[in-house]
Amino acid sequence: MSTIRPDSKFRKMLGVPRTRRARETGEPKIDSKAVEFVLRVGRALHQYGTPAHRLEEVLEEMTRRFNMEAHFFSTPTSIMAAFGPLGDQRSYLVRVEPGDVNLGLMSDVDEIVTRVLAGELTTARGLELIEEIERAPQRYPAWLETLCWVTSAAAAGIMFGGGWREMWIAGLSGLGIGLLTLLAARSPTVNRIFVALSAFIASFVGGAMAVVADGASVFIPMVAGLIVLLPGLTLTVALTELATRNLAAGAARLTLALMILLEMAFGVAVGLRLAEMIFGSPPQMTTVGLSFGVAAVALVVASISFTVLLRARFADVGWILGAAALAYIGTRHGTLWLGSEVGVFIAALVVGVASNAFARFFDRPASIVMVPGILLLVPGSVGFRSVSRLLERDVVGGLETAFVMTLVAASLVAGLLVANLLLPPRKAL
Description:
By secondary structure, the protein is mostly helical. The chain has 2 domains: 29-135, no CATH class; 142-422, no CATH class. It has 19 helices and 3 strands. It has helices spanning 6-14, 22-25, 32-47, 52-65, 103-117, 123-135, 142-159, 164-186, 188-192, 194-212, 219-225, 232-243, 247-279, 292-309, 317-338, 344-362, 367-377, 379-391, 395-422, and strands at 70-75, 78-83, 90-95. The protein has a 3-stranded antiparallel beta sheet. The chain is globular, with a radius of gyration of 24 Å. The protein starts with 5 loop residues before the first helix and ends in a 7-residue tail after the last helix.
């Protein structure tokens, strides 16, 4: 009786040599602690807002340093990993809930990974430190985060061309959304509809106060109040993932960005309608922006607020201020040179080069500088306006604005990719 297994028969028929296990070929055995460390790092970075292409590069670099063969596949809700040669792999699936951007914890994890790869820490000690990070309390107290919702919205109201009235209305919207975040943290039900409720608050406050304040803009305070929630960063990351051939992650994240826009549009439609029923229709007024000096002060306030809302280390506030200034100045000059849509390319290029330089010289994640800069370029606000027009049955205007949104997002992605070409980062993060 033949002892050859069926799979061996097929291997002989196809001329495929028999795969030998690691113990037969003398290949290094897979270190279970190293595997656990890699997966825990991947889960942590995923939760803290790392894009798929950067996450996979980080994990692949780690496994190379651990002398392991591995393959990774990341989506916005999971990480799939396979360790070992193709004929003798061990596969893992890590289910991850998409989290908010947390630049401080991302930086903490990056430091642990750097020390482990340098041999300063064992993988076991690295695992302990990551567990401590995951159990640590919030970096900033809840009252401070609520205050920063107010100040970030008020500052954005000025930077978007509004006046004093728009600033106060945007700050009031930010206060409502900040208080809602406290409720959403305690109630999973509220958290599921947080975006729609936030859009409702911003639109209702904007519509009501535009009438009460006698002619203030409705759109500027509304977008300023939602500045942190707008899916501009999500949209940019999605297109970047698609451009780097991470098709599954990019398509899923792009769908998420569109869903956020739809949720916001629904909340805005209800909020504006309710405000109109109670207070009447707001007059159509043209706002006059404030001086450059006031805008500069608003930029500083916005940078400090973003430091807290993005949960970055407060010691990084200077770098975040620099990124915001580069984005703001780059957008202004880029608009003068190339127009309002393509001019964003200049701003993204400048921010991208600056973030890569920061990563190279200080051996820290480029996201610390890049994310706040991209946040101010807000292609999400253009998409928000597009969906709002479609809800108002202005199909032509909505499609036109949607095209502008796509062009702005593409300009952002092109600027970041060219920045990586001009000054390649030394590390994936």
